[in-house]
Amino acid sequence: MKLLIIGAGGHGKVAADCAAKMQKYSEIFFIDELFPQVQKSGPWEIVGNMAGLNSLVDQNTEVFVAIGSNATRQRVSEELARLGNIPLATLIHPKTVLADHVTIGEGTLVCAGAIINISTTIGKGCIINTASSIDHDNSIGDYVHISVGARLAGTVEVGSQSFVCISATVANNIKIGNGVTVGAGAVVIRDVSNYQTVVGVPARPIKEVD
Question: Is the pTM of this model over 0.85?
């Protein structure tokens, strides 16, 4: 099985390294809109751009969308779904701690050192980043990014396209809406409505911060 990664930036390299550690793929390569000006990302080849996607995918190829922006990752993933017959990879680093009864949607990346505890559901197209922790009975929507070192306690809900930034903490039984940004290092102890940005300790909507 081969793996074609869309997006050759830093996030793409992390995805490629995870895929290599899984020892599932005989070949890993990229497409990126910088091609042909840029033809390598780390040790991996960039072989084309989105215009040539169909010619690079066959029955032995899975595709992974390695784009950091939640909205753009969703748009590209949905474009692939409309094309049909393009299987999306789900990448789970072998140094993930994954409990029983965890569900992970297609197109999601779970990075090294992440912990996902029992009875948690992760949506499609998510990024569960390095050394993040998601405890029991969480529900993570589609195209969410749980960033490096973020901590979610038990029974947390995170809506689609939300971004929990580096080292943020979310207390138990909290509901975070769709399209929310939780700022770096924030501590969330109250529910967060759709499309708000919250920062600070305790976290408050950004318009309330001096």
Answer: yes
